[in-house]
Amino acid sequence: MRISFFYLILLFLIPQISLAISEAEEYEIKAAYLFNLGNFIKWPATSQDSFEICVLGQDVFKENLDLIAKKEKKLQNKLAVIKKKSSLDDVNQCSILFINFTEQSQFQAAFDKLKGKPILTVGDTEKFIIMGGMIQFYLQAGKIRLMIDPQTLDENNLKASSKLLQISQRVER
Amino acid sequence: MKFIYNILIVISFNTIVFASNEEKEARLDALMGLEIEQLGEVEVKLDDVFDIFDGLVKPQNVKVASGIQQSTATAPASTTVITSQDIEATGARNLEEVLEAVPGMHVSLSEYRFAPLYDVRGMHSSTNNEILMMVNGVPIKSIIDGSRGGAWSPPPVQSISRIEIIRGPGSALYGADAVSGVVNIITKIADDINGTEIGFRTGSFQIYNPWLLHGGEHKGFKTMLSLNYLDTDGHKETVYQDMQSLLDKASGTNVSKAQGRAYLQQKQLSIQANVSKENWQSNLYWLRGRNIGAGLSTTFVISPEENHEQDFIQADIAYNNSQIIKDWGINARLSYQGADDKLLNSYSARPGAIRNGELLPYGAPNNVGYYQRQTRLDLSSLYRGFDKHIIRLGIGASYAELYKTTWSYLLNKQSPVMVDVRALGMVSIPENARQNRYLFAQDTWHIDSNWELTTGIRHDWYSDFEGTTNPRAALVWQVMPSLTAKLLYGKAFRAPSFVEMYLPASNVVAAGNPHLKAEVSSTWEIGVDYRLNSDLNLALNVFDYTVTDKIQRTLTKLNNFSIYTYNNIGTLKGSGFELETRWKINNKSSLLFNYAYAKVKTENSNEAGNYPHHQAYVRHDLLLGNNWFFNTKINWVSNRDRPLGDDRPLLKDYVELDLTLRYKNMSKFNPWDIAIGVRNLLNEDRREPGDARLIGDYPKAGREIFGEIRYKF
Fold it and tell me: Which CA distances in Å does B701 have to A93, A98, B304?
């Protein structure tokens, strides 16, 4: 019996750190990132008067992106619009495209189709970048970090700011 | 008590970390106010991925209390909900482990197979006939003795979606045998699995347990399939005496296998399936057990040769429509169960024993078989047309049949020829059938925003004993948004079993009494549920019950000789309380603590015995890094008295300490889930009350280790 008391006490003495920055849900943080990325990428000039952030596949953000867009309104001096897409044929107006397929095989087809188009592809599935994506969220010690492949951006006429490159983990092919 | 004191001290050492209660919008605002590099410093709540920490404290809904979805805080009964997440987090491998977490429930052992007895609030019996266990709403009940029957096993843990438990009476809704409690095991459906999982579990006692789970849509039908195979040797803890030991002592022989291990091996295959489309759904549970070791068996004798075979099938088809016409919802279910049990080489005396002066060179082996089937139709309807009332009405019928019993033994004990004695007009228990019809009504009256009154009544008719009416009432008061109080009253009954009513006197063991009535109970409860903040929940339930017309075995003179027979003569009075604490310490750890006290007396204020006065359960979950979950469980069982006439030394208290470490990568496309664990780390000699004539009681397993691996695709 005594051993178990000891054990219990030990468990509770494991430091319980409470941070000043409040914690947030995974897809709240990712939504904030996704919106923010609009400020750190240079797109080729277009005549489009809105800036579209699109979500393709299963919508994991729920209302998060819409709530942000409602408040922030503008990106790149254009009206920020959130669009849910169900098909790849419908994404040409998107500046940022978050892709969330359930099947790994679907990604390959998507990246082939998007080749050369100035659409920033973002995802959080494993191997997203290796398969041909541009920016991938990953979890490190309970925090969400970015992985970036500047070469893929370059091939699609996009340019990441030096700050974004600085805070992201670079993937070299 | 010292144990509890220690725990309370430990808890008070810790300052409560209040989670920010900000609205989502405020949180998003704050996030958008950060620089992009600061976003990388915000901690992620992992709850939405593996929801154990939030899952432990957030309000849970139950349906078992009234047939309507309600939160556990306001449900008109004392309820507990266990989710698949709890099962996974605690690394539970069987239902016994899962249900130890229920406040006031203690898992004890029966002679036969050392099968679990789920004792609630101090109610203990050798067949556990006072609790109603259901799988997807269909009762699991042997009509022979009121137990769950033969070698029945519940669906494997990985296929369980949730378990809803009522501690206390449930007959006003569920009819017979819901006296000490109701356990409804709800199995997974296609959407709970969504893909395919293969898993394998192994560990001490040569456990070999592969499984497959699949959920998906096929030709418009949502389909779930579970396959599970289990092969184990069972534990080998020492049993000190069996009935043969007593016979040995009387006749000077030495042929008992005690002291020694009891045989608890088994091979078992189960298939479980669920198919649904729109309002229709169908469930199947098929179980086949072979070479099942019998423990002390029904004869209280250890026999290595003894083995049992079981074939069980449960199938149902149900139609549910929450709005069939305006304001009316309907549920209909037709179910069938078949259970074939064969007990082979069941020795009542070992080879070489001397019984009544006769040497038995081959012992006294028996082969016995029981074949049961039960068909049920249950219809219920929900009416929501009134402003402040929800009315639920139900009607149903069942037909249960013991349609074949087989029995053979050595008619001439000097020659090893098994004789089918049915030909000689002898039966272990006569074939028989029982019909039941019922009617129930329930009203949930939303008096105002703070008060709710649930009243219900059910009447059951039976073909072979007197019908019974069971009312209930529950008044729930929402004192503040964070505080709920309830006052509950309910009557319940237990149906006399075929053994108690029809066991033939020629059987020598005991004679049934066809004039038995149902056992009845009435229970009062007061419950309080207090949500201190979003991270800390406290619940207290106080109970007081009386069971009357309790069926007991007494020695009676019958045709000039004395024999045991059954009569409605007993009384049981129990009272006590359950305290439950659920605390999310921070976003990486949580704690569940519960303590239960019970005191149960028989008619002459004698201690009923065989249950723990004090029990405590602690569960601690901890996230280490990103992907490692560490779970600790402590189950403390203390202060078990012996019943009157049982003068053996008291059972020792015990503490069971279980640890589980699980690796679960939460990023997508990582399909592995691996766990290792140890059970009863302190290797305590855990004993459960055994037959009063035998020294040593019945053992639970010693220290054991296990590993589990799952792959999902």
Answer: 65, 52, 18
Q: Which among A5, A101, A122, A131 is the top mutation candidate for probing chain B, defined by the most B β-carbons within 10 Å of its own β-carbon?
A: A5
Domain ranges of chain A: 24-170
- Chain A residues whose CB is inside 8 A of the B44 CB are 23-26, 29, 139, 142-144
Write out the CATH class of domain A24-170.
Answer: alpha beta
Can you say whether residue B305 is alpha, beta or left, with left for phi > 0 and alpha for psi between -120 and 50 degrees?
alpha
Give dist(CA B321, CA B399) in Å, integer: 26
Report how far residue A47's alpha carbon sits from residue A52's, in angstroms, rounded to the nearest whole number.
13
What residues of chain B lie within 8 A of the CB of A145, using their CB?
Answer: 40
Q: Which two tokens stand for residue B10?
A: 């430990």
The 3-state DSSP class for residue B24 equals: helix
Q: Helices (DSSP H) in B114-257: which residue ranges? A: 171-174, 190-193, 243-251
Given an 8 Å threshold on Cβ–Cβ distance, is B669 in contact with A104?
Answer: yes
Tell me: the pLDDT tens digits for A29-75? 999 999 999 999 999 988 888 999 999 987 788 888 998 888 887 88
One-letter-per-residue 3-state SS of B332-397: EEEEEEEEEEEEEEEECCCCCEEECCEEECCCCEEEEEEEEEEEEEEEEEEECCCCCEEEEEEEEE
**How far are the Cα atoms of A34, A38, A69, A97, B30 from residue A77, in angstroms, in the given order?**
17, 10, 13, 19, 22
CB-CB: which of A9, A104, A142 is closest to B43? Answer: A142
**Selected residue with higher pLDDT from A3 and B65:** B65
Q: What is the pLDDT of residue A26?
A: 83
Looking at the predicted structure, is the pLDDT value of residue B22 above 80?
no
Per CB-CB distance under 8 Å, the chain A contacts of B11 are: 12
In this structure, what CATH number is given to the domain that contains residue B58?
Answer: 2.40.170.20
Contact A4 B682 (CB under 8 A): yes
- Write down the pLDDT at residue B31: 86
**Domain range enclosing B649:** 2-712
| Tally of CA atoms within 13 A in the half-sphere of B537 that contains its CB | 21
How far, in Å, CA of B229 to CA of B571, rounded? 43
- Concatenated DSSP letters of B40-107: TTSBEEGGGTSTHHHHHHS--EESTTTSS-EETTTSSSEEEEEEHHHHHHHT--SHHHHHTTSTTEEE
Tell me which chain A residues have a C-beta less than 8 angstroms from the C-beta of B680: none
**B527 DSSP 8-state letter:** E
Residues of B in contact with A64 (CB under 8 A): 24, 28
User: Which residue of chain A is at minimal alpha-carbon distance from B590?
Assistant: A12
- DSSP tag of B29: H
Residue matched to tokens 């006197």: B505
Determine contact: B32 vs chain A, CB below 8 A: yes
Taking CA B260 as the corner, what is the angle to CA B256 and CA B262, rounded to the nearest 5 degrees? 95
pTM of the model: 0.81
Using the beta-carbon criterion (under 8 Å), do B585 and A33 form an inter-chain contact? no
Predicted local confidence at residue B586, as pLDDT? 81
ipTM: 0.83
Other CB atoms closer than 10 Å to residue B81's CB: what's the count? 19
Triad B575, B478, B121: Cα angle to 5°: 15
Question: What is the least distance, in Å, from the CA of A129 to any CA of chain B?
Answer: 14
The number of folded domains in chain B is 1
- Cβ contact A32–B32 (<8 Å): yes
Residue B11 has pLDDT above 80, yes or no: no
Stretch 565-594 of chain B: residues touching chain A, C-beta under 8 Å: 585-589
Helix (H) or strand (E) holding B458: strand B451-462
Lookup: tokens for B613: 């006065």
**How far are the Cα atoms of A38, B179, B342, B590, B619 from residue B229, in angstroms, in the given order?**
53, 33, 20, 33, 29
Q: Report the alpha-carbon angle A47-A52-A53, nearest 5.
A: 155
* Confidence label for A6 from pLDDT (cuts 50, 70 and 90): low
Structure tokens at B243: 């009935």
Query: Is residue B469 over pLDDT 60?
Result: yes
